[in-house]
Amino acid sequence: MRIPTSLVAALLCAGAVPVAGQEAAVPGDSVAFRSGDVELRGGAVPVAGQEAAVPGDSVAFRSGDVELRGVLYLPEGPPPHAAVFFLHGGGRRWINAEPTDFARMALERGMAALVYDKRGTGASGGNWAAADFEDFIADGGAAYRYLAGRDDIDAGRIGVVGFSQGGRLAPVLAARYPVAVAVSVSGPAVSPAETRLYALENNMRENGLSEEAIGRSLDLWRRFFEALAAGRPLAPLDSAIYTAAQDIPPGALPPPSEHYQAIPHFNSLNFDPSADWARLDTPFLALFGELDVVVPVDPSVAALTAALAPEGRDDVVIRVLPGATHALDRPPGTRDPDYVPTVMDWLERWLGEE
């Protein structure tokens, strides 16, 4: 059975849940480093209203066969400096507002900051769609090793901040590499499938689908994820998808098998961080927004609390910001006043000089 091109296009967009972001950015010099067989690359990004460039270095380093490129910002004052690097959210993200905004604030507090284009996006090489969460963790590990190997960076004072998907990966990276502190911003702590189903359900409800249509769609998505996770063919689902597309907006349905396109989320359905959580002894901050419609907050808080702080730990803080969204904004788009100070104070607490 074949369906119209317009319907195919809508099916391929299924599950997209956009999140508004900030536009400000920090200028810096182009840098490059490698992870596996992918080159990541970044360039200077201007800050609105600023003419002077923030000091930066052109750098290159490798992780396996991959060259990663980004932007390194160095603060004033004598080295060695504390430093922070960033893990991107999901999708085709390159050097963008959130990490570059935090890079500026890190500089204001005397910390160096490294940001880079996700593999396969922006100026970076590699295949973004073929990557999985383990690839992005390896890329973050390459960023850590590069910073730790510089004479002007204090290897004992390097932190990582992850946003959304990057927030999911930040505690895993911190368990595998000797970073001094880790921060997760709206990072899910439930399975990739559960996370996507939650976002899809909220997206469909927001767009006015009936409860019956939502139920049918979610059932197909569950079957789609189960088949992908088990390595089974997707074609047996096609008939049900095409039938459902007759009265359910195709953008709410899984893609048919002949038009399936891999993305890191689909490639990582079997991702399990539990072993890494069990050995995490790094100071860790997790922030969530109460009104998040992309990440299931209550189950994520429960999972992190049970794994990382069942009896309470002074160096683990898991906090929900009331009235905040996935981007930790307060509707209609004003940044939550506690968001940035909480992250920066946490970094400064654990990366400050003894």
Task: Give a description of the structure.
- This protein is an alpha/beta fold.
- Helices cover 35% and strands 18% of the residues.
- It contains eleven helices and 14 strands.
- It has helices at residues 5-12, 97-108, 133-148, 165-176, 192-206, 211-230, 238-244, 264-267, 274-278, 297-308, 339-351; strands at residues 32-35, 38-41, 56-57, 61-63, 66-68, 70-73, 81-87, 112-116, 153-163, 181-185, 284-289, 316-321, 329-330, 334-335.
- It has an eight-stranded mixed beta sheet with strand order 3-6-8-7-9-10-11-12, sandwiched between helices. Strands 2-1-5-4 form a four-stranded antiparallel beta sheet, covered by helices on one side.
- Strand 1 and strand 2 (38-41) form a beta hairpin.
- Helix 3 (133-148) crosses helix 4.
- The radius of gyration is 21 Å and the shape is globular.
- The model is unreliable at 1-53 (pLDDT under 50).
Brief summary of the model shown:
The protein contains 11 helices and 14 strands.
Low-confidence stretches: 1-53
- What structural class results from the helix and strand content? alpha/beta
| Contiguous helical run count | 11
What about the largest sheet? 8 strands, mixed
Our Rg estimate from Cα atoms comes to: 21 Å
> What distance separates the N and C termini?
67 Å
SSE pattern:
HEEEEEEEHEHEHEHHHHHEHEEEH
What average pLDDT do the residues reach? 84
Oligomer: single chain
Shape, per Cα inertia axes = globular
**Strand segment count:** 14
Beta strand %: 15-25%
Helix content: 25-40%
Q: What is the strand arrangement across the widest sheet?
A: 3-6-8-7-9-10-11-12
